[in-house]
């Protein structure tokens, strides 16, 4: 499937450009790692070599957007939704995800919203523990359908009132 990668990348780039063009109701936060803060001033993980003049690398990401649950109906009804939270494996359990989520919570308050939603897979125990610790609770459950085991998982819809 390697031949598909350039196409997938292009699709992602276009999707990101579209999202970043949105003036309201979308934000993306990243956690940056300064090279100088690492031991001896060098980056330890080989895939994390600095590639730009600012000499940092992204080690975590998160997005928050206003989502419409059903594009065919009720276009005026949207809700803030967290997505694409990920922290580089070498930098986990240092509070990065917690901080990224808190940034999003602050952002939706600035949007005048109070309720934040997200999905997490049943078997994703680290993420479930993280959300539970931060005060998210189960709103509903939905079984996914697909060929892969992961795509047949139970998806938990979580909610927090900020
Ligand atoms: C889930 C994930 C984002 C957590 O990132 P992180 O930066 O390591 O999380 P934090 O350091 O901010 O952890 C905050 C809390 O989350 C919980 N937590 C995080 N990782 C955990 C783990 N491996 N086991 C148990 N609890 C964990 C803990 O309650 C932790 O609080 P504590 O440090 O006081 O115990 C990260 O593991 C990841 O990127 N996983 C793959 C992508 C993913 O699953 N994203 C979520 C999709 S819904």
Descriptive account of the structure:
With 162 residues, this protein is an alpha+beta fold. It has a single domain, classed as Aminopeptidase, CATH 3.40.630. The protein contains three helices and six strands. The strands form two sheets. It has a three-stranded antiparallel sheet, with helices on one face. The protein has a three-stranded antiparallel sheet with strand order 4-6-5, with helices on one face. The longest helix is centred in the N-terminal third of the chain and has 17 residues. It is globular. The N and C termini lie far apart (43 Å).
What topology emerges from the helices and strands here?
Elements: H1 5-21, E1 26-34, E2 56-67, E3 79-87, H2 96-110, E4 115-121, H3 125-133, E5 137-143, E6 154-161
Antiparallel strand pairs: 1-2, 2-3, 4-6, 5-6
Bound molecules: coenzyme A (COA).
Residues 85-87, 92-98, 120, 124, 126-127, 129-130, 133 line the site of coenzyme A.
Question: Which labels suit this protein?
Answer:
162 residues; alpha+beta; Aminopeptidase; three-stranded antiparallel sheet; 32% strand; binds coenzyme A
């Amino acid at each position: 499937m390697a031949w598909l990668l350039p196409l997938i990348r292009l699709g992602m780039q276009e999707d990101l450009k579209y999202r970043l063009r949105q003036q309201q109701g979308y934000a993306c936060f990243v956690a940056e790692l300064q090279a100088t803060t690492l031991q001896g001033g060098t980056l330890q993980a080989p895939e994390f070599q600095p590639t730009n003049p600012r000499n940092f690398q992204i080690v975590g990401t998160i997005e928050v957007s206003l989502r419409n649950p059903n594009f065919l109906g009720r276009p005026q009804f949207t809700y803030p939704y967290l997505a694409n939270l990920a922290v580089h494996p070498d930098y986990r359990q240092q509070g990065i995800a917690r901080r990224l989520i808190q940034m999003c919570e602050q952002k939706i308050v600035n949007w005048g919203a109070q309720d934040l939603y997200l999905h997490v897979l049943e078997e994703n125990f680290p993420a479930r523990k993280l959300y539970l610790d931060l005060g998210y609770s189960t709103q509903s459950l939905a079984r996914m359908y697909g060929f892969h085991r992961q795509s047949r998982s139970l998806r938990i819809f979580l909610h927090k009132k900020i």
